[in-house]
Specification:
Helix content: 25-40%
CATH architecture of the largest domain: 3-Layer(aba) Sandwich
Oligomer: single chain
Distance between the termini: 24 Å
Shape: globular
Bound molecules: 1,4-dihydronicotinamide adenine dinucleotide
Radius of gyration: 22 Å
Number of strands: 9
Strand order of the largest sheet: 5-4-6-7-8-9
Number of helices: 12
Largest sheet: 6 strands, parallel
């Protein structure tokens, strides 16, 4: 298991030992230089910032590895096409949509009620309320982009606060009782906008200067999905122009070399992120929305099941990413046999 963090180990050790899967934990990320560590292993378990390129795949294959077990949903860091015929690729399609939706709600409340400011103040015995005025969520309009598993839970949470919900999805859910609008309409009408769609060629930089231009003054933008949904420079300009009232970001488009590590003793070589973090109305968390005990247990359980079912039951695993027909996600749902 590469890129192992302290919080990964307990659940993987627990589910592994219960199911006769022995893990070797490495803190280093999987790269061309570290691929040989997997020699003698049947599978490698990787996360979002491990590199599973063509060269790494060839090296793993030469070393006798048979499977890449992603302990996350996204697989944009894996050359699935190159792996075809060599290594089987499995992933964890869902682990806790509640974790992510609840984190989005936590960020929203923190931001609009200035909890992050109040927390720092009272720690220094500063009990002044000046500058802490928030606004009621009740009666505000929230625009939700992407009404899949996470988006719908976030919608339920918002309804609990008495907010009016409008939504945009490229594939609207039928009979869901959700009021769908066009993306432009959502930009124009929302007091709060929350992103819950995947990162694709269509959605990259969906929040750009044009989109921000259409939004209400003071709009609050939440992103717990993928960093590159937002053009960060345009967001910063929107904040500086006082058009965007607040931004809550659990993801950042250049996060790969920054997030998940303690960089507190170092100079941060990212002007955009530094500038954003310095803003009083911006809250950044480092891709932690998934990080609950429930989610970690589900990730470990599903990963161990993926590995076990592949090596036990004639190699059929429901969560295999099948490259055979090129239609990775769809094929996965239809398939009754191995990808190759
Ligand atoms: P999902 O697949 O259940 O829902 C995604 C929704 O987006 C679907 O309804 C789909 O129709 C819609 N969609 C697809 N293309 C679209 C487009 N062009 N415009 C608008 N909507 C579009 O996925 P789920 O589980 O709800 O996850 C949503 C996203 O949350 C993931 O793609 C991932 O990027 C992010 N995520 C973030 C985590 C974190 O720790 N911050 C953890 C897990 C997921």
């Amino acid at each position: 298991m590469f890129d192992t963090k302290a919080y990964d180990k307990p659940s993987f050790e627990q589910y592994g030992s219960r199911n006769d899967v022995e893990f070797k934990f490495f803190e280093t990320k999987l790269t061309e230089d570290t691929a040989d560590l997997a020699k003698g292993c049947d599978a490698v378990c990787v996360f979002v910032n491990d590199t599973v390129s063509d060269k790494v795949i060839d090296r793993l294959y030469e070393n006798g590895v048979k499977m890449i077990a992603l302990r996350c949903a996204g697989y944009n860091n894996v050359d699935v096409e190159h792996a075809y015929g060599k290594l089987h690729v499995v992933h964890v399609p869902a682990y806790s949509p509640y974790a992510v939706a609840e984190h989005a709600a936590a960020l929203l409340l923190t931001s609009v009620r200035r909890i992050h400011k109040a927390y720092n103040r009272t720690r220094e015995f500063n009990f002044s309320l000046s500058g802490l005025t928030g606004f009621d969520l009740h009666g505000k309009t929230v625009g939700v982009v992407g009404t899949g598993k996470i988006g719908r839970i976030f919608i339920d949470i918002c309804r609990g606060f008495g907010m009016k919900v409008i939504a945009y999805d490229a594939y609207p859910a039928k009979d869901s009782g959700i009021e769908y609008v066009t993306l432009d309409e959502l930009f124009e009408k929302s007091d709060i906008i929350s992103l819950h769609c995947p990162l694709t060629d269509d959605t990259r930089h969906m929040i750009n200067a044009d989109a921000i231009e259409k939004m209400k003054k003071g709009v609050v933008i939440l992103n717990t999905s993928r960093g590159a949904l937002i053009d960060t420079e345009a967001l910063l300009e929107g904040i500086k122009a006082r058009k965007v009232g607040a931004a809550c970001l659990d993801v950042y488009e250049e996060e790969a070399d920054i997030f998940f590590e303690d960089r507190s003793g170092h100079i941060l070589n990212d002007e955009l992120l530094s500038r954003l973090i310095s803003m009083p109305n911006v809250i950044v968390t480092s891709h932690q929305a998934f990080l609950t005990e429930e989610a970690l247990n589900n990730i470990a359980e599903t990963t161990v099941n993926n590995i076990r079912s592949f090596f036990d039951k004639e190699g059929i695993c429901d969560n295999e990413l099948c490259y055979r027909c090129g239609n990775i996600e769809h094929c996965k749902k239809e398939r009754k046999e191995r990808c190759f």
